[in-house]
Amino acid sequence: MTPTNDGHRIELLYRATTAPRLVEVPCLRFLCLDGHGDPNTSPAYSAAVKALYSVSYAAKFDVKKVGGPNFKVSALEGLWWAEDLSTFLTGDRSQWHWTLMIRQPNAVTDDRLTHLAHQAAAKTSLPAAAELRLTSFEEGRAAQVLHVGPYATEASTIAKLHDFIREHGFALDGHRHKHHEIYLGDPRRADPDKLRTIIRQPYTAA
């Protein structure tokens, strides 16, 4: 799939309200890093966040330096899943798998991103940057909703979203359809009570 160029359509996907709605997510391009374990205690998770932000901002300034568009660095996003889905109910975060991502504009070429990632790994003491990968994927049909507040209180919002999907006659599979979160603002600096997270869940026909 080729990543879409429809900027306005994409930006609408990064706006949400506390009322769930159905969306169609086209093919998008991301800088990613995969990991495993509790995001609150895992050094790998913290290193992944730092590496993604570092290289994404480096890409922004790299494009601007050669006269390209002065784009805004996109939000941090995360895909979450587990082999045993009950760990999401029990809160056993040590069993969670994750892919952290930041969407990249077409103005940033694959070659430059690869160069900047290796440069960051060598010069800024961010070895995780060398593990970053580029991927494009099309999430397709999904539903999303805005959660306001700490991540620990997301359960009721997620339940509301899942109920919304089922009420519209669709189904979701916790193994095939990864739980997707989009962190509006910088989660490293925001007051937990003011955190704004878009929760997105792909689905299929029932």
Structure write-up:
With 206 residues, the chain is of the alpha+beta class. It has a single domain, classed as Multidrug-efflux Transporter 1 Regulator Bmrr, Chain A. It has five helices and eight strands, in the order αβαβαβαβαββββ. The strands form two sheets. Strands 1-3-2-6-7-4 form a six-stranded antiparallel beta barrel. The chain has a two-stranded antiparallel sheet with strand order 5-8. Helix 2 packs across helix 4. The longest helix has 23 residues. It is globular.
List the helices and strands and how they pair.
Layout: H1 7-12, E1 21-36, H2 43-65, E2 76-81, H3 87-90, E3 97-103, H4 110-123, E4 133-148, H5 155-167, E5 170-171, E6 179-184, E7 196-202, E8 204-205
Antiparallel strand pairs: 1-3, 1-4, 2-3, 2-6, 4-7, 5-8, 6-7
Summed up, what is this model?
The protein has 206 residues and is α+β, with helices and mostly antiparallel strands. The protein contains 5 helices and 8 strands, in the order αβαβαβαβαββββ.
What distinguishing features does this structure have?
30% strand, globular, Multidrug-efflux Transporter 1 Regulator Bmrr, Chain A, 206 residues, two-stranded antiparallel ribbon, alpha+beta
What CATH first level would be assigned? Answer: Alpha Beta
**Structural class category:** alpha+beta
The major pleated sheet works out as: 6 strands, antiparallel, barrel
Number of strands: 8
**Rg computed from alpha carbons, rounded to a whole number of angstroms:** 17 Å
Q: Give the distance, in angstroms, between the N- and C-terminal Cα atoms.
A: 25 Å
Query: Any low-confidence stretches, pLDDT <50, length ≥5?
Result: none
Categorize the overall geometry: globular
Number of domains: 1
State the strand order across the main sheet: 1-3-2-6-7-4
- Fraction in helix: 25-40%
Query: Can you give the mean pLDDT?
Result: 90
SSE string, helices as H and strands as E? HEHEHEHEHEEEE
Q: Any idea of the CATH topology? A: Multidrug-efflux Transporter 1 Regulator Bmrr, Chain A
CATH-assigned homologous superfamily: Regulatory factor, effector binding domain
Q: What portion of residues belong to β-strands?
A: 25-35%
Count of DSSP-assigned helices: 5
- The CATH architecture would be Alpha-Beta Barrel
